[in-house]
Write a structure and sequence with these properties.
Layout: E1 5-6, E2 15-16, E3 21-23, H1 28-36, E4 42-47, E5 52-60, E6 69-76, H2 80-83, H3 86-93, H4 96-134, H5 138-146, H6 154-176
Antiparallel strand pairs: 1-6, 2-6, 3-4, 4-5, 5-6
Helix pairs in contact: 4-5
Length: 182
């Protein structure tokens, strides 16, 4: 692809067709690309001044009284069918729905994960509050239920905290002599 270049779609501006832009008649390759990628407004033109082929897409097609407005997608010294791979075209022409689906799939997963974590946290808090109430620690139970006490769910690494609580609890029993060995 020596002398070829992709045009960055983020920085791209519409281009009015000029006299030195010669639209090339459609080839079987172009018809296939238009059909495969559902891009009916694709076309190729020859830039006479720069001596390059350009793959572009009409924004507003040329008429006898209007020169036409397009977006350039690729330019190179060789014809696009001799230069562009199917992989390149797939990346460049993927449908908006597919792009949006990819873009928001991660966001959707994060929202679901957050909701699951919140539900798990509330269940764990309720379980802990129930245990505390059985021991007569109503104020501590209220603090846990109201979120005044920091909480880490098992999914967030809370199982390590459970192990630490267990060790601390066992240590507390030994210090207080509640295990009968003091």
């Amino acid at each position: 692809m020596n002398g070829d270049f992709d045009i960055d779609l983020d920085d791209q501006e519409a281009l009015y067709m000029q006299e030195h832009h010669e639209v090339i008649p459609e080839t079987e390759w172009l018809l296939g690309v238009k059909k495969s990628f559902n891009r009916p407004k694709l076309f190729v033109y020859w830039h006479r001044l720069k001596k390059k082929y350009v793959l572009a897409e009409w924004i507003q097609e040329r008429t006898p009284t209007y020169r036409g407005l397009c977006l350039e997608l690729w330019a190179g010294e060789n014809r696009p069918q001799d230069s562009l791979s199917k992989e390149w075209m797939h990346r460049r022409f993927r449908h908006k729905e597919e792009h949006l689906k990819e873009q928001f799939a991660g966001a959707r997963e994060r929202v679901v994960e957050k909701r699951l974590t919140q539900q798990e946290e509330m269940l764990e808090r309720k379980e802990m509050a129930r245990t505390l109430r059985k021991k007569g620690l109503d104020a501590a139970a209220d603090d846990i239920l109201q979120g005044r006490t920091p909480w880490t769910t098992e999914r967030q690494g809370g199982d390590q905290l459970k192990d630490m609580r267990k060790i601390m609890s066992e240590g507390n029993k030994i210090v207080s002599g509640s295990d009968g060995t003091s």
